[in-house]
Every structure is written in C-alpha cells, then in structure tokens.
Amino acid sequence: MPLTLFRIPIQVEGLFFNLPLLLVLFAACHLPLAAQTPSSNIGFETGTFSNWQGATGSCCPVFAPNQGIVNGRHTITTGSGIDTLSNNLIQQVCTGSVYSAQLGNSGGDAESEQLYFQMLIPADSLILAVKYAVLLQNAQHPPSKQPRFRYSITSSGIPLTGCTEKLILAGDATIPFLHYQDIDILPWQTTAIDLSGKTGDTLKITFETGDCEPGGHFGYAYVDLMLLPKKIELHGCNPDGSLNAIVASGLDGIWMNGSATDSIHVANPDNINDIYYVLNANSDCELTIYAAPEVLLPSSEFTFTEMCVQQVAFAAINSINNTLVWDFGDGNNAIDSNFIHQYNSPGNYEVVLTATSTNNCFSTTLQQLIVHENPEALFSSADTCSGIPITLKNESQDAETYFWYLNGNLSDTIENPVNLILSEGMQTLQLIAANNIGCSDTSSATLNIKSQIECLFPESYLYIPNAFTPNGDGINEIFKIINLENDQEYKIFNRFGQMLYSGNSWNGTFENKDCEAGVYLVSFQHNKKLHQQTISLLK
User: Fold this and answer.
1) Are residues 100 and 128 in the same domain?
2) Residue 481 is part of a domain; what is its CATH number?
3) Spatial separation of the C-alpha atoms in residues 193 and 130, rounded to whole Å
4) DSSP string, 214-237
5) Which pLDDT value is given to residue 3?
6) No. of H helices and E strands in the chain?
7) 505 and 484, same structural domain?
8) Rounded to an integer, what distance in angstroms lies between the CA atom of residue 29 and that of residue 209?
9) Contact of 415 with 449, CB cutoff 8 Å
10) Could you give the CA distance from residue 129 to residue 143 in angstroms, rounded to a whole number?
C-alpha cells in the first residue's frame, strides 16, 4: 500500500517542532474481490493464480489474516503426478483438467491456508462443479483441534440451494475416508451447485485447509472448479432409432440406468420416460438434470373414435412430415395419417402407431381399443285389446338405451314399457335401440288392436253390436261385426234405403261427413245366408 507522510506541529515547553509522522495503511483480512468473468481462470486454466487471492495463518480454528499467495502453501499442480502420501490414490490434477491447485502442505505446523475466487454468473442454466481431494493426518485429537478442509459458496442474490458449504475433519466417521497409515484420504469428490436463475449475481468461492492445533499433524487438499452447462444433449437418431445422451465432462453424476459415464446409448427412447442424470447422488442436495426425448422424437400420439358397424376412425396428432405405420391389432396394417378401419368382429384390440421422422428417430404409441357389437332392435308383443296395457318383450341385443314410438310419436324410453295402452284399430309401434356410442337399430310392427267387445267373444261366436258411438272419445268408435269371416263385407243403409258404406269397419261417416245419430240397417252374408239387423249410431 502507498505510504503517506504528514508533518504535525508538536509543542514542547513552549517550542514548536514539525515532526514527520509515517502512517501506514494496512490491508484488512479478506479484502473484497473484484468480480471476474467466467473465463478469468476459475479452474486455474492459465496455470497461475491469476484472479485468485490467497491468505495464510494458523489453526485451529482457521485464522488467516496474512493476505497473499505463498509459494509452498498455494501451489499450482499439473501433469500426471500422484500424491505419494495418499498411497497412490490421489492424482494431483483433477480428471479432465490441465491444472489444479494444492492448498496447504504436509508440514504440519499448525498452519492454515485459504483461496478465494469471485465472479459474475454469466448465464442461466449453469452448474458450478466443486472438486476436491483431501489428505488429513488423524491426530486423534478432539474434533475442534483436528486437521481440516472446508469449502464455501455464496451468492450476492437469493441464497443458493444445495451443498454450498462443507467442513471435513480428520477422524469423522461420516466421511467415506480411505486410510493409509495415520492419514485419512478422501479421493477426488465433485459437488454440483445449481446456478439456475442466478445470472448477474456475484459468486464467491472459498477453500481453506488447516493443520491440527498442537501443530504436529498436517491437513491439505487439492482443489479445482468447473463452470458447466446444466443440460443433456441428445444426439440422434441412429439408423435403429436409438440416440446418444451426453452431459458435460466433469459433472461426475449417474444416469438413470446407473452408468457413471459422460454419455449413454438409449436404445428405445420414447415420449413417456425422460432421460435424466443425477448429481450429488444419495445426498441431501441431490440434483437431477432432465432431457425430454420428444425434442427429437416424432409424435406418435393418436386419437380414435368408434363408429358404427365395427368401424373406427383413427387420427394421428402432430404428425406432419412423419411416416406413420398403423397396426390395428387384428392382423391389418396401414400407412396414413388418418384412417377409418373396418373390424370384422367386436372385441378388444391393441392398436400401435409408429412414427418415423426424416432423421431416423421414431416413437411408438400403444392404446387399448374396445370395438362394440352393433345393436339389434327386436321386440315381440302379445295380442291385446283396446284399453288394456299391451304386453311387450324387448329382445334387443347390445343396446343400452331404448326409444318407443307409437304412430310416430315418442311414447316411452324404458326397456320394457308396462303401461302402454293402444287404441282400437291398426297401430304402428316402433323401437329404436342404441348403444353407448350412439349406434342404433330400428324395429317396427303394425298391430291390429281389437276392441274390448271383440276380446270378449270366442272366434266361433258371431257378435253384431246393436250400437256404436263415433264421437272421438276412443271408445266404440268403429262398427264391426265380431268374428265375421275373413274379408267378408257388410253394407250399411239409412232409413231411406240409401247405401252409405260397404266394408268391414264403418266409422259412422258418409262421403267424409259424420252421419246423424239414428237407426241404420246392416246387411251381410254369413254361412251363405243373408242377415239383416238394425244398429244405432249414438253421439
């Protein structure tokens, strides 16, 4: 720091002296660091401590007031060297790096060391990979006096989540140490810190090591950092439809299939199962990166609509420029985006659509389909008389809803109507039976509904009513001779001898006009004899 010289007047026994006073400005511990860009040597890429700051001091606890990089306590490592004190278990450079740093040494003089780096987080979807390997001589001291290693990651914005800080002490049974003589050895570890959503925040990384407090046992570590993209790259597709999934080297995670490599081969990618990569596996700060294969895979989704007579309409979704192959589950196939398929019989079918894109990627979608039988409308009825509920038996097949029509008018919607009363004469009864997808069938019958009088007499008995009332009340509206031979006609005459009607079912009209109330003559042949009788038309 620069020196500043002041002259301050001092009075001694009435005399004034101008004495120089030298003021030295000392740097405080842990001076604020200028934020750097991500290319500013975060992983010691230049082979130097450029943009890093160091400090030294004593332990324990770690107290490092002395600023500056100290040779032998802050050391850049390179090459393929192996730390001999680690029983050849630790390489001095992290895998995938050209340079790493050694913090501390094997001196064991109750010393402590620190390294600091500060930077602006440059972009979203980044991961900070914190890498370290530790050698701590187990002095069997209480934990507060044992050799140690610690890292800490802080952000100027909302606090980071995950394993942003860790203290490792010699003799800690919770740490997966390997052991050589009295040295606890922790081979290279990787902890991933998610920096998503932190763009523009200031990131500060701190490493520190310390010997034991009595001073006879050492603690030191190798450290490195990598700033890596938080993503899985999907490369494909291969001619067999498979693809390759790749993450940045250095994340040191585990794929969904248990592989610990930087890339895996996915033989049968689909639109349902994500491809994922787990960082910090089996820890409290486990972090998972996902990749949806549908980014590459064509859509093989489809809809279907069941139609009638075992027809089904299929439609592919988002299938532009893809080759589509349908397997309808009945031994038939087709190539088209939309298709109406005719099934020969109802039943359960497994329909598969395979979509292949121009880049060899393909996907398949399977759906279960039930093809229903077309409904058949059928009913039977017993003979009945007017004024008495008709007995109907619904014999329809594969139907769920029913619509009964009498002379064209909806009469009932239950399966077997019980209160349907028909008027005398010819009546048209129609049944429409439908299933749950709206397919229907129709059955009709024309019924000759007898009058109540007809129903009272056996066929061998000839009955001639002596009166009828064609007044529109639905009762005795028609004059009929009961049990007259088939197709036998009778004649109706008025009191003037004029014939008004010839047939077998007179409704009391002449030339489409209602006849007056009164007495009329009916004449007919029966058993080869002429019979005549008067009848009364009443209003």
Assistant:
1) yes
2) 2.60.40
3) 8
4) SSSS-EEEEEEEEEEE---EEEE-
5) 35
6) 1, 40
7) yes
8) 17
9) no
10) 28
Q: Is the distance from CB of 405 to CB of 392 less than 8 angstroms?
A: no
Is 32 part of a structural domain of the chain? no
197, 79: one domain: yes
Please indicate, yes or no, if residue 189 is contained in any of the structural domains: yes
C-alpha torsion sign, points 497, 500, 506, 512: negative
298-356 confidence digits (pLDDT tens): 888 899 988 888 899 999 988 777 889 999 999 999 988 788 999 999 999 999 999 88
Question: What is the residue-wise DSSP string for 473-531?
Answer: SSSS-SB--BTPPTT--EEEE-TTS-EEEEES-B-SEETTEEPPSEEEEEEEEETTEEE
Tokens of 74: 């802050």
Which residue, 381, 393, 377, is CA-closest to 432?
377
Q: Say yes or no: 282 and 326 in one domain.
A: no
Give the pLDDT of residue 188.
Answer: 98
Give the pLDDT mean for 504-532.
91
Counting every residue, how long is the chain?
539
pLDDT tens digits, one per residue of 436-490: 888 899 999 988 887 776 677 666 678 888 999 999 887 888 898 887 776 689 9
Q: Is residue 24 part of a domain?
A: no
Residue 78: inside a domain = yes
Max distance between CA atoms of the chain, in angstroms, equals 178
pLDDT digits (tens, 9 = 90+) for 90-105: 999 999 999 999 999 9
* Same-domain status, 110 and 175: yes
Which helix (H) or strand (E) segment holds residue 159: the answer is none
The reply to whether 315 and 413 lie within a common domain is: no
Indicate the number of domains in the chain: 5
Residue 340 shares a structural domain with residue 411:
no
Residues 357 and 309 in one domain: yes
pLDDT in tens, 24-71: 222 222 333 344 455 589 999 999 999 999 999 999 999 999 999 999
- Rounded CA gap, 104 and 97, in Å? 20
CB contact set of 252 (below 8 Å; sequence gap of 6+): 129, 190, 260, 279
Residue with tokens 């029983």: 87
Query: What are residue 80's phi and psi, to 5 degrees?
Result: -110, 25
> CB neighbours (10 Å) of residue 20?
8
CB atoms within 10 A of CB 419: 9
Q: Across the strands, what pairs with 430?
A: 405, 444
Tell me what the mean pLDDT of segment 185-193 comes to. 97
Query: Which of 229, 247, 277 corresponds to the end of one domain?
Result: 229
Contact 330, 306 (CB under 8 A): no
* Closest of 243, 205, 217 to residue 117, by C-alpha: 205
Nearest Cα residue to 264 out of 273, 275, 250, 274: 275
What is the value of pTM for the model shown?
Answer: 0.57
Supply the range of the domain harboring residue 420. 379-449
Q: What is the CATH number of the domain that holds 224?
A: 2.60.120
